[in-house]
Amino acid sequence: MTPKLFIDGTWQAAARGGTIDVVDPATERVFRTCSAGTADDVDRAVTAAKRAGQGPWGRTTGRERAVVLRAIADAIEREKQALAELEVCDNGKPLPEALGDISDAAYCFNLYAAYAEELDARQGEAIAVPDDRFKTTVKYVPAGVAGLIVPWNYPLLMAAWKVAPALAAGCTLVLKPSEFTPLTALELARICEEAAVPPGVVNVVTGYGN
């Protein structure tokens, strides 16, 4: 696992070079380090996300995004044991609970894949208006860059709850996990990279809340 930030499709050191010690709650020992991103890194990530949203990703159909979402779900399910064991060390929860969380995260990406496909079916749907001189239809477009902040208690699952709908809607995003439990968010970035999510669509900036 890299201790770097994931910005614009590449693993990058934090602008100021800071790191965070990741502590195993069971032993109170440091077992990993990750980068301590700052406002400079957030700015770089947002810039990358804006640029990616103006590129091909912002023009994808729901069906095309569903393919990516299902690839992410398949990878999470395939790596469930390793991700759960990492969650145990990072978060301290029992392994059976962590395994359930990881399965739920995979389910979430599959669920929003279906929702993305449903968006296609709703594109251009007519809305009745009381004046026959007018015709009204709906066009769904991405809202832009989503800033996603998740807490420590369900690290990967809560990331999935936010990343999956953002991707389903065609948005780009910057994810900031808790400084106490950053590791599975970084693994999610790797999985997104391997699932051919375009550079800049998913960015992960680890760091302290301030």
Write the layout of secondary structure elements.
Layout: E1 5-7, E2 10-12, E3 19-24, E4 29-35, H1 39-53, H2 62-78, H3 80-91, H4 95-122, E5 126-127, E6 136-137, E7 145-149, H5 155-168, E8 172-176, H6 183-194, E9 202-204
Parallel strand pairs: 7-8, 8-9
Antiparallel strand pairs: 1-2, 3-4, 5-6
Structure characterization notes:
Helix content is 47%, strand content 17%. The protein is built from six helices and nine strands, in the order ββββααααβββαβαβ. It has helices at 39-53, 62-78, 80-91, 95-122, 155-168, 183-194; strands at 5-7, 10-12, 19-24, 29-35, 126-127, 136-137, 145-149, 172-176, 202-204. A hairpin with a 4-residue loop joins strand 3 (19-24) and strand 4. The mean pLDDT is 96.
What's the quick description here?
With 210 residues, the chain is an alpha/beta fold.
